[in-house]
Design a protein that fits this description.
The complex is a heterotrimer of chains A (90), B (214) and C (538). Chain A is an all-alpha fold. In chain A, 76% of the residues lie in helices and 0% in strands. Chain A has one domain (8-87). Chain B has helices at residues 15-50, 52-60, 64-90, 93-123, 139-175, 185-210. Classes of the chains: A mainly alpha (90), B mainly alpha (214), C mainly alpha (538). Chains in contact: A-B, A-C, B-C.
């Protein structure tokens, strides 16, 4: 896998992550209800994507690594969704 | 093994194959960690959906300031780790060692802040089986929230501790000149693990501390 | 007995025979043998539990063991057979030995992880046996909460920890196989030239690494809940016992594919060799293996139809379960088609493989009966279920395991086993198996519940037939242990390719040298390049 040519990429990512952190904390006090939850997890997913694509070099890695990186989340999604299918329809 | 010299293990044909195998191996391991933690998230999500009010109450009792600070600490430790891997790839030994120990320090800071948080929770009677009390209806569901809260943050903290131990070991190896631009796989692999611990926390934080806070 | 008596110097068996050479080995072939020894011992213990169960069930009242002991017997039988025999069986024994050889590599990607995985397995097994001799567990191998978390007495922590540790052994094995298959194939060995055994090891490994972590955390949740006295499965707190079942079966259903997919891989190797035909529909067979692994992750709710799970979820799971049977059926049709116009010979491995096809088909078909919501209401928790999964696990997986052991015995040991004994045992096992488990379909349909030590007198005839069959089965399993060990000293020495089979593992001496191939192989032909008219074994 290729490392980014310049370390400045990591600094930029770090700044972005902290900005998103500030945003998500502010959003917690904004009384957004269910939209708030969706927003929090969208921000978290974006932060995770930044870390995985850049700090963990997935952007320049073999597609197989990207598939493996995703498969765990997909498995948990299946677990949660099908279990909720039961819990919510009892 | 000589300083920084790449030793190709006998089962591999060449350095490229060894690197590819190590990389694939660590990513598979990281996938297992995602699934391992994912079960806790699943249990939390499903239980929360069943008790939205009690879990919102519980969430509001968590210390967002300490946890928010901790998130920033962990994100910064990820930065120092990423820069460390970069330094390793450039052969900058001194920078590498410095950055690795910085990461260790930040990891320890995370655990220290967590310790402060736990102590605070204990004093506020929020620790299940250790004098938990939250008078009112739904007390047992709030207790359920904190049961999961301690379980999730506890398992995460354990992974942070393991990460610190690994990075410290790598730091010692680095100071002895074991790595070079042609061989720094252990640094890279440890870095990936550390970043995953960070990614997991990025989901733990909103799930426990932020959702339905207001 | 020493290595030189068994095998010529220059082979991996000739490289030392002391404890150090075995217990610190990094050679995947020796580690495969270490695993074989460990699971044979554990199979014996699990089988002894089964023997006691079948003896106790000879009479309608439990006269051999107390009711409490009976619960411990079926629990330990399940725990050991699932986690300490079936799940490791083909992958950790034949897989460890053959995966590097079939891809043309010198070893697996991570030999030290491989040895570590064996030690983890032994540690987990030891802890579980400790729990057994200390008094056992009576929760059933399924550990349902809140019984396991709140009410069961016994060594729940020890068994759960033993299984947890063994789980990591599985994960490491799976990780090793995936990396090896991706990165260490010989030149010319493209994905669609791989033997189907490798495809099956690959798919099994995917399930191992993706499902087992879920089991690990589920066991942690169960253990902590038991310890803390509060938790997410406890109805008194508003917790949900079904949450445990969802988490448990999310792993445990894919686990059954961990047990059967390797057997399917073995079957493809044996059937093509002894029919002298390429496997019919190779690509469909490979895709079917992957489809089984993938679909296996979305059907777990069929274990919970009558648990209180919603009918809507039940319907979805039922539909998905019907879908997962399709790739399995494709495989059965293709094995049968592989036989068509073949030059079939009936060596012991082929007898086991043919038995596998028939028994797996019956097991799979009865799975469809159970997947039907209405039928399952009647059949759930009866002996019909017990018979269904034993047809697949024992009639399928264990038959294939024995078939594979015989097929590759010459390669592993450099000796031929005695063919007449082996054929007789294959037939004895097949007869004994059907006598043991077919009556269980009947008595289950008639209403006999599983996990019960007592039953109405009108069921006795079926139970007696089943127990009689179990006696034959015990012989069928025990005898190979004796004649295979006998062959190590007295069997004729095996040539490199006694079956004239295709596959890289047969291109190297029997037993192989430590590095597997004196010269790294390159692959130029398709898999199963059996040509009609070409002679079989000589």
């Amino acid at each position: 896998m290729q490392l980014p040519a310049r370390p400045q990429v990591y600094l930029l990512v770090w700044v972005g992550l902290l900005a998103l952190l500030a945003l998500t904390i502010l959003a917690a006090y904004a009384r957004l209800g269910a939209y708030g939850t969706a927003l929090h997890f969208t921000i978290a997913a974006t932060q995770a994507a930044l870390v995985m694509l850049f700090s963990m070099h997935l952007a320049s890695a073999h597609p197989l690594m990207r598939a493996i990186a995703l498969i765990g989340f997909i498995g948990i999604a299946i677990l949660v969704l099908l279990t909720l299918l039961d819990v919510l329809t009892r | 093994m000589a300083e920084g010299v790449l030793a190709i293990q006998p089962q591999f044909d060449d350095a490229r194959q060894q690197r590819a195998a190590s990389n694939l191996g660590i990513w598979i391991f990281l996938a297992t960690e995602v699934l391992f933690f994912g079960v806790l998230f699943a249990a939390y999500a499903i239980t929360r959906i069943r008790f939205p009010v009690a879990f919102a109450q519980g969430g509001q009792l968590t210390d967002i300031a300490l946890a928010g600070t901790n998130t920033a600490v962990l994100l910064t430790s990820s930065l120092s780790m990423a820069l460390a891997v970069h330094a390793a790839s450039r052969g900058s030994k001194r920078t590498l060692v410095l950055l690795l120990w910085t990461t260790v320090l930040l990891g320890c800071a995370f655990l220290a802040i967590k310790g402060v948080e736990y102590r605070e929770d204990y004093l506020e009677h929020l620790v299940p089986t250790l004098g938990f009390a939250h008078p009112g209806p739904g007390e047992s569901q709030v207790e359920l929230f904190f049961y999961l809260y301690f379980l999730i943050t506890g398992v995460h903290a354990l992974h942070v501790l393991i990460g610190i131990a690994c990075i410290a070991t790598i730091a010692v190896m680095a100071s002895r000149g074991r790595f070079s631009p042609s061989y720094f796989t252990p640094v890279d692999v440890t870095g990936l693990y550390w970043h995953l611990v960070d990614v997991i926390w990025l989901f733990v934080f909103p799930a426990l501390y932020l959702v339905s806070r207001s | 007995m020493n290595g030189a008596a068994i095998a010529p110097a220059g082979s991996y068996l000739g490289e030392g025979w002391d404890a150090r050479s075995w217990f610190t080995t990094l050679d995947h072939k020796r580690i495969g043998i270490l695993y074989t020894a460990a699971i044979t011992l554990l199979f014996g213990i699990g089988g002894a539990a089964a023997a006691l169960i079948r003896l106790d069930l000879l009479t309608p009242h439990s006269e051999l063991v107390s009711l409490a002991t009976y619960n411990k017997l079926f629990t330990i039988h399940g725990v050991i057979m699932v986690w300490f025999f079936l799940i490791p069986s083909i992958p950790a024994t034949l897989g460890n030995f053959l995966v590097p050889m079939m891809v043309g590599a010198r070893d697996l990607a991570f030999p030290r992880l491989n040895l570590f995985s064996w030690y983890l397995f032994v540690a987990g097994g030891a802890l579980t046996i400790y729990a057994l001799v200390s008094g056992g567990v009576d929760t059933g191998w399924t550990f349902y909460a809140p019984y396991s978390t709140s009410y069961a007495n016994g060594y729940v922590y020890a068994v759960a920890t033993g299984v947890f540790i063994a789980g990591f052994s599985s994960i490491l094995t799976g990780l090793n196989f995936i990396v090896t298959i991706h990165e260490m194939r010989a030149p010319g060995l493209t994905w669609f030239r791989l033997p189907l055994f490798i495809w099956s090891m690959y798919a099994t490994s995917l399930i191992l690494v993706l499902a087992t972590p879920v089991l690990a955390m589920t066991l942690v949740l169960m253990g902590i809940e038991r310890f803390a006295g509060i938790g997410v499965f406890d109805p008194a707190l508003g917790g949900d016992p079904l949450l445990f079942q969802h988490l448990f079966w999310f792993y445990s259903h894919p686990a059954v594919y961990i047990m059967i997919v390797p057997a399917m891989g073995v079957a493809s190797e044996i059937i093509s060799c002894f029919a002298r035909n390429p496997v019919f529909g190779y690509r469909f067979m490979a895709y079917a293996i992957l489809a089984i692994a993938a679909f296996g992750f979305v059907v777990w709710g069929h274990h919970m139809f009558v648990s209180g799970q919603s009918a809507y979820a039940g319907t979805v799971f039922s539909l998905l379960t019907f879908l997962v049977s399709v790739p399995s059926a494709v495989k059965v049709f293709n094995w049968t088609a592989t036989l068509y116009k073949g030059r079939i010979s009936f060596e012991a491995p082929m007898l086991y493989a043919l038995g596998f096809i028939g028994l797996f088909t019956i097991g799979g078909l009865t799975g469809l009966f159970l997947a039907s919501l209405g039928l399952d209401v009647q059949l759930h928790d009866t002996y019909f279920v017990v018979a269904h999964f034993h047809y697949i696990m024992v009639g399928g997986a264990v038959m294939a395991f024995f078939g594979g052991m015989h097929f590759w015995w010459p390669k592993i040991t450099g000796r031929m086993y005695p063919e007449t004994w082996a054929r007789s045992c294959a037939v004895l096992t097949f007869v004994g198996f059907n006598l043991t488990f077919f009556p269980q379909f009947i008595v289950g349909y008639l209403g006999m519940p599983r996990r019960y030590p007592e039953y109405p007198p009108e069921f006795q005839v079926w139970n007696v037939l089943s127990s009689a069959g179990a006696a034959f089965l015990a012989f069928g399993y025990a005898l190979p242990l004796f004649y295979l060990l006998w062959s190590l000293r007295h069997g004729p020495r095996a040539p490199a390719n006694p079956w004239n089979a295709k596959g890289l593992e047969w291109q190297t001496p029997s037993p192989p040298p430590v590095e597997n191939f004196p010269v790294a192989p390159t692959v130029q032909e398709e898999a199963y390049a059996y040509r009609s008219g070409e002679a079989g074994h000589g």
